[in-house]
Amino acid sequence: MPVINIHKIDWFRILTDMSRLGYSLQDIADELDVVASTLIGWKKGASPRHHTGEALIELWCRVTNKGRHEVPKEKYIQKFIFHSANRGCRHSEK
C-alpha cells in the first residue's frame, strides 16, 4: 500500500536561518510589514497568512541565496493511499 508524506513549511527554521545570517526579528518584521511579536508566534508553531508566508519565503531565498525548492520543511502527516477500481483514490491518515 503506497504511503505519501505531506510536509509543511518549517517557519522556525526559516527565521532561525535568517537570524544566523544577521537579520533580527525586527528587521524581518519590518520587511514583511508585521510586528515582531507575530514572528515569535511563528517560531512557536503558528503559521503566517498565505501572502505573508510567500513574502517570507521570497525573503529567505534572497537572504540565503537558496532556491524555493530548498525551503525548510517538516513532515506534517503521513497518509496511506488505497486504490479502488471504481472510486479512484481514497486517503487514510496514519
Q: Helix count?
A: 4
Rg calc: 17 Å
Strand order of the largest sheet: 1-2-3
Element string (H = helix, E = strand): EHHHHEE
Structural class comes to alpha+beta
Number of strands: 3
- The CATH topology turns out to be 434 Repressor (Amino-terminal Domain)
- Poorly predicted regions: none
Q: Which CATH architecture?
A: Orthogonal Bundle
Q: Which range does the strand content fall in?
A: 25-35%
Please name the defining characteristics of this protein.
94 residues, alpha+beta, 434 Repressor (Amino-terminal Domain), three-stranded antiparallel β-sheet, 27% strand, elongated
Question: How would you describe this protein?
Answer:
- With 94 residues, the chain is an alpha+beta fold.
- The chain has a single domain (3-93), classed as 434 Repressor (Amino-terminal Domain) (Orthogonal Bundle).
- The chain has 4 helices and 3 strands, in the order E-H-H-H-H-E-E.
- It has helices at residues 11-20, 25-32, 36-43, 50-64, and strands at residues 3-9, 73-84, 88-93.
- Strands 1-2-3 form a 3-stranded antiparallel β-sheet.
- A hairpin with a 3-residue loop joins strand 2 (73-84) and strand 3 (88-93).
- Helix 2 crosses helix 3.
- The longest helix has 15 residues, at 50-64.
- The radius of gyration is 17 Å and the shape is elongated.
- The two termini are 12 Å apart.
- The relative contact order is 0.24.
Write the SSE topology.
Layout lengths: L2 E7 L1 H10 L4 H8 L3 H8 L6 H15 L8 E12 L3 E6 L1
Antiparallel strand pairs: 1-2, 2-3
Helix pairs in contact: 1-4, 2-3
